[in-house]
Amino acid sequence: KSSRWDSTENESKHLPIYRHKAKLVQAVEGSTFLVVTGETGSGKTTQLPQYLHQAGELSNGKIGITQPRRVAAITVAQRVAQEMQCTLGREVGYQVRFDDCTSQDTVVKYMTDGCLLREILADPVLSQYSVVILDEVHERSLNTDILLGLLKKMFSDPAKSTKGRSFPLKVVVMSATLETDKLSAFLGGCPVFAIPGRTFPVTCTFGTAVGPKDVESTGYVKEVVRMALDVHTSELAGDILVFLTGQSEIERACDLLFEKAESIDYRYDVQDQTVEGLLILPLYGSMPTDQQRQIFQPPPSRIRKCVVATNIAATSLTINGIKYIIDSGFVKQLNHNSRVGMDILEVVPISKSEAEQRAGRAGRTSAGKCFRIYTKEFWEKSMPEYTVPEIQRTSLTAVVLTLKCLGVHDVIRFPYLDCPEERFLLEALKQLYQFDAIDRRGKVTQLGELMVEFPLQPGLTRAVLKGSSLGCQDLLLPLAAMLSVENIFIRPGNPEKQKEADKKHRALATKSGGMNDFATLLSVFQLCKSRPSAWCKDNWIHWRALKSAFSVETQLREILLRLQQVQDFPVETFDGNKSELFRRCLCTGYFTNVARRSVGKVFCTMDGNGSMVNIHPSSSLFDQEADLNWVIFHDVLVTSRVYIRTVCPIRYEWVKDLLPKLHEVDVYELSSVARQ
Ligand code: ADP
Ligand code: MG
């Protein structure tokens, strides 16, 4: 096998994990569960699967490695394919939602935790795998936490865990932090393998500028840019890693940096005369993969690299050569908002442990420096000690349905590493009942069995299934695809250009009949099928996002066809026009998101929370409020106000029979079943 290795082999021999290869393989062989810990960058993710693959017995089946983030799954698989000198998708592959790059030959498979959860639905004992590695467990993503519980449960019943298997399954749990005692205890006191790592000291300094006020004005972007330039001009050679929260912010910071870096005079302004330029690289989830690859390449000589990244660079991906960290102190996080009763992506202060993790990235190969733009006071007063696990702060609807379909009926007494609040579980049960996915006794209905097959949020799935019963899946499938990809409409930062983009988008909305944002999405999908990419550019539409929407639509269609072949689908008829048909289907999935205009431009939601909301300016219904009465909406944006986005008008009659469901069920009735 060694002949297939190239220079990356030498590189990988220098990773801290290399010296422990034999012992590690032994430890995996010797125990059902193993916890592996080690500093970020020690080689856990890229090397361990290769070691296990080379070790005879453990390669009887596939080796699966889960990641909470899709970008991590993809980039790491690319790297490992390169190290093993094979084509990506052959021996080494990856699978993330809507993107499967594996084949019959794939033996080392990187995937998101959500994908493995889906595989368990189809094959509860994971019979094809000899090793499953749950990676980045310290991130405490919802799906990883559920997988931990499921795997624990699987082995608590020996008869079940071996049924239908021809070789044993080993489970490795990897975590960057030292919170391993808790993991080991959870997994029945399993062994812990700690990879000793070298780290170098990192000096951290606090800033003077950023306080809690700056979250809304995003004043921290400017501060981060100022700091990065300061480091570039006054510090010795070494690359910079900047932490921000998301794509638009990162693009803006890169633009600003680029502009300012242009005017540097390297003869006078720069301290270190070996530095002669700045290479600015963004890094975020929805970036094209060829661009992502650049991140890992060393910069040309005498050029300093500056990577502006989301939290993904904190532990999932390691970039060599980083000596300076600029930490904005913020992260984008999905949180359940009880004010509006929905999950909302919001920018929040990071935890102190997260800040330590970020700083640590500067000390991998030599001593480094971390510049925090926030004050010591912000650290003390606004930053929590630890990040709350996702399972304790987001909607559990989809996960509870998955558990129920796996035969876990008592979702309250499931083995959770950290228990979610009971009210979140009850909320999930209630929503599933409202969508007809479970019955009053908490049992999965036929519709629920269908719903779980779709990698979409339950409400949207409900609408798609209604559409297929009514024979209008051609309207609902493209819509679902468009709602599943990010940023179809480009909104440039420059105010002039923004105006131009808004105008083009409004024209597209009018073209689709106007006054219905869902219909606009559908119409853009259909229009773009026959338009070249130049047309998209001209209309400020993200060509790449659209292309993925096309692919998502095909995949959703395949799922639907497959289900239609094996199950009886209810067939319904409808007489009325297409626009009404479309909106009625939407109502079956979005009756939880109904709002009625109360006064002026303000609407009131009908979900029992009675939140006061406004239509977001990006909607084609904005400024048309006077003509509206009842609307449904796709999501909510909370700033100083609560905005609803992607909106369409409906008639009260269409939801009249559905709305009572929101109040009908007594959650304790559902929970008493759950407790049985
Ligand atoms: P860990 O999982 O312990 O944090 P990794 O296995 O991710 O460590 O990283 C080991 C090394 O592999 C690091 O030096 C990292 O820079 C390198 N590496 C990982 N992915 C890539 C990639 N896509 N391209 C180049 N180098 C990579
Ligand atoms: Mg890793």
UniProtKB/TrEMBL annotation:
Organism of this sequence: Sparus aurata (Gilthead sea bream)
PROSITE patterns from the UniProt entry: DEAH_ATP_HELICASE, HELICASE_ATP_BIND_1, HELICASE_CTER
PANTHER family assigned: ATP-DEPENDENT RNA HELICASE, ATP-DEPENDENT RNA HELICASE DHX40-RELATED
Protein name: RNA helicase
GO MF annotations in UniProt: 3'-5' RNA helicase activity; ATP binding; ATP hydrolysis activity; RNA binding
Cross-referenced Gene3D superfamilies: 1.20.120.1080, P-loop containing nucleotide triphosphate hydrolases
GO biological process, alphabetically ordered: mRNA processing
Domain Helicase C-terminal, first and last residues per copy: 228-407
Domain annotation Helicase ATP-binding: ranges: 25-196
Sorted UniProt keywords: ATP-binding, Helicase, Hydrolase, mRNA processing, Nucleotide-binding
SUPFAM superfamilies: P-loop containing nucleoside triphosphate hydrolases
Phylogenetic lineage: Eukaryota, Metazoa, Chordata, Craniata, Vertebrata
Keyword Nucleotide-binding: yes
The enzyme's E.C. designation: 3.6.4.13
Swiss-Prot/TrEMBL catalytic activity: ATP + H2O = ADP + phosphate + H(+)
Nucleotide-binding found in the keyword field: yes
EC top class, as a word: hydrolase
One Pfam short name: OB_NTP_bind
Family, as annotated: Belongs to the DEAD box helicase family. DEAH subfamily.
InterPro entries assigned to the protein according to its UniProt record, in alphabetical order: AAA_22, DEAD-box_helicase_OB_fold, DNA/RNA_helicase_DEAH_CS, HA2_WH, Helicase-assoc_dom, Helicase_ATP-bd, Helicase_C-like, P-loop_NTPase
